[in-house]
């Protein structure tokens, strides 16, 4: 049974339609990446899945008992607020010290429990947000441009941690990413969104789809093809993609 099934979903803000008749599903244990240009409705889709946005049409259905962990694109914390990582992770309530230790270890930062939030680097803070999402032992992890603002090395390390989490816990991952090397190296499926689902399938299928190339151009397609070639041959693969940095919709 699918963890999440989105059927014929439309989302509107006033008179503006940001998503039109979107359907998708996420199966247990798979990694699905959503790509698309600025303003294509990617963040709105994730917000609809977690229930923060009410659909104008269609529905979002969760499999029985599906637990979702959400890592937002950004979370603004008052830098003058004296709060430790442990206290921050306890904010939802009902969280034990062992829950926090487990989640921080899964996020790859087991030694940050006593650190002040205000003293964390950008990469460390994103790991703490990942730990917060992992505390609920999610069946599905949602990531909204979780590496925005990190350098290439920090971004690569973060996504390697996501692969480790998937391998160790078996949770599925649905993520928004503009980093094409991530799409090619980690995704089981890619969904190209531009207000509607333009195309979907394996990374190789989407990279060659006319709808995808119409949005991103042949330069991006070439980068994807080059990355796939190097990845298949086991070479060291850096970021050959063009950077399509996206803001939250």
Structure explained in plain terms:
The chain has 8 helices and 9 strands. By secondary structure, it is of the alpha/beta class. The chain has one domain: Rossmann fold, CATH 3.40.50.300. The strands form 2 sheets. The protein has a 6-stranded mixed sheet. Strands 2-1-4 form a 3-stranded antiparallel sheet, with helices on one face. Helix 5 (152-169) links the parallel strand 6 (140-144) and strand 7 (172-176). It is globular, with a radius of gyration of 18 Å. The two termini are 30 Å apart. 41% of the residues are buried.
CATH architecture: 3-Layer(aba) Sandwich
The chain-level structural class is alpha/beta
**What value does the Rg take, in angstroms?**
18 Å
Could you say which overall geometry the principal axes of the C-alpha atoms support? globular
Beta strand count: 9
Instruction: Please estimate the helix content.
Output: 25-40%
Features:
249 residues; alpha/beta; Rossmann fold; 6-stranded mixed beta sheet; 3-stranded antiparallel beta sheet; 8 helices; disordered C terminus
Question: What topology emerges from the helices and strands here?
Answer:
Elements: E1 4-13, E2 16-26, E3 31-35, H1 42-49, E4 57-62, E5 68-71, H2 85-90, H3 97-106, H4 122-134, E6 140-144, H5 152-169, E7 172-176, H6 180-186, E8 189-193, E9 197-201, H7 203-207, H8 210-232
Parallel strand pairs: 3-7, 3-8, 5-6, 6-7
Antiparallel strand pairs: 1-2, 1-4, 8-9
Helix pairs in contact: 3-4, 6-8
